[in-house]
Design brief:
This is ABC transporter ATP-binding protein. The chain is an alpha/beta fold. The protein is about 35% helix and about 25% strand. The chain has 10 helices and 10 strands. The structure holds adenosine-5'-triphosphate.
Length: about 240
């Protein structure tokens, strides 16, 4: 049984159909990426899984039907999103932002373990615990966004464009952190416009175009596909 299974997901904004019968599945411990152009519906897909957007179709997580489940219930189930555009609390410190990520963590020991884990993963955050989040660099804000999501003990981490707007070296630091998170056994659903990053990190990739999955396969297969190479990899 896949960890997360999505069948015929349909999402609308008013009368606009944004996701049209999207189906995908993620196995335990896999990293799967969704790539696609601007406006294809990638963020909407993640927001639907984390119950921030209404949807139709069928979604199950660990066999549990997600119909009618609220966003705080999805977090309690272990579905945690690190959103695009960071969505941090800019006037709060790095430490306070991390603590807010743990709002559902059951016990102090778990919170402390997660806190140590995040600071090990991102030592730069440890050096800036009292700094206001709004004054961090773009790369540091992205680290904080991922770190805050990890504070909620995800079973599956939904990552929305973690490399967006970052310089190559900072992108590489984020990619290294994502690999470490995978090595810890966290399943990852990665949404990326940077297809190079997606192919580097994910075992399998789905291409989402205008609300449809147009092609999917292993990273190796897709990175050898001539249309993917010209449309997404600039080759
Ligand atoms: P990007 O890479 O540019 O973030 P995306 O693939 O993540 O794009 P979405 O953000 O999911 O795409 O948007 C898909 C479509 O839904 C777009 O046409 C967008 O304009 C529309 N859309 C997104 N949010 C809303 C909203 N709150 N109200 C109305 N339409 C919306």
């Amino acid at each position: 049984m896949p960890l997360l299974e999505i069948q015929n997901l349909v999402v609308r904004y008013g009368s606009a159909l944004v996701l049209d019968r999207v189906s995908l599945a993620i196995e335990n411990d896999e990293c799967v990426a969704v790539i696609g152009p601007n406006g294809a519906g990638k963020t909407t897909l993640l927001r639907s899984i984390s119950a921030l957007k209404d949807w139709e179709g069928k979604m199950t997580f660990q066999g549990h039907d997600l119909t009618g489940v609220t966003s705080s219930q999805t977090v309690a189930l272990g579905i945690v999103q690190a959103p695009e555009g960071r969505h941090l609390f800019p006037q709060l410190s790095v430490r306070e932002n991390l603590e807010l990520g743990a709002f559902l963590a059951k016990d102090k020991a778990e919170r402390d373990t997660n806190y140590e884990y995040v600071l090990d993963l991102f030592p730069r955050l440890g050096e800036r615990l009292r700094q206001m989040a709004g004054t961090l660099s773009g790369g540091e804000q992205q680290m904080l966004c991922v770190g805050r999501a990890l504070m909620a003990s995800p079973r599956i981490l939904l990552l929305d464009e973690p490399s967006f707007g970052l310089a190559p070296l900072v992108k590489e630091a984020i990619a290294t952190a994502v690999r470490q998170i995978m090595a810890k056994g966290t399943t990852i659903l990665l949404v990326e416009q940077d297809a190079h990053m997606a192919f580097e990190l994910a075992r399998r990739v789905y291409v989402l175009e205008e609300g449809h999955i147009t092609i999917s396969g292993t990273s190796k297969e897709l990175s050898e596909d001539p249309s993917i190479r010209s449309s997404y990899l600039g080759l």
